[in-house]
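Board work, copied verbatim: Urea transporter
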Amino acid sequence: MDTPPTSPDAPGEPSRPSAERVREGVLAIPRGVAQVDFQPSYWTGLIFLIALFVGGWEFGAFGLLGCATATLTAWTFGVPWDRISAGLEGFSGTLVGVGLVLYLGTNWVTVLVVIGASIGASMVNSALVVLLKQYNLPALTAPFCVVTLMMLIAAPSFHRVWIHHPLNPPPSATHPGTEVSFSDVWHGFFNGFGQVFFQDKWYVGLIFLVGLAVSSRTVAAAASAGSIIGLLMGWWLGAQAADLDAGLYGYNSVLTGIALAGTFVVLGPAGIGFAAIGAATAAVATPAITNTFNIVGGHALTWPFVLTTWIFLAAVPTLSMLRRTS
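↓ predict structure ↓
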């Protein structure tokens, strides 16, 4: 494994990283936030952080804590520097921080839990990178899903962890009904981007979309198509309007659309259709996985995206009209 090179100033003195290495280390944090949506741009990461703080200071602060902890863990144990500087070791920690503060509440115990869970996510990420390499599959957000799901299932057994947890019922629990209004549609479209980071305010989702457009208009278009497809699938199958409004049927489709439309599969007519089918599949998988995990006290998180994308990417070698990007 690579370790950050150092350059001693004089014999016997401790080695110090170069200014460029320090700069890249700092920029690895916003890049780690951006990599949640597969983007390497630190400008996109900074815009994403603004969106999180607009959604609530706790989301921005705990997202930063998780990203920094996971990134530092990877550096400490010698993960190759190119992965660290690109933000590939920080994005799961970002989601760990945002997800756990949402479900466990804002208190000092959650701070410790997020630090521990982010360290765990870094370990799971390294393990999955090795295990999935033989299948040419990326780890995606699976490290976040594994660690966060385990923590949420275990949390009720730990009094200090669970005592301050807020109730987070789905919007449809208080506003049932399947009649969809125009407001539900445009709210749901923007919330599809926000719910990737557990945000349910449409203007926060709009900021995330701006961040994607800053990185790539193609990616922003793929994400937008994913959000629309998720909405349409939910509406067509008769999903609760309040859940559509909140973006709960869009966020996994957003991620799947980005992943399959140019990120891991070469973009073309066949690739666009392939990505659209994947986005629709992720939308249907969302309530299936949600209902399954509700039994054990867990949440769907981004599992629908992860499982759908793994299956679709594994199928590419047998589909002659498609080609992997690498």
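The chain has two domains: 23-168, 171-325.
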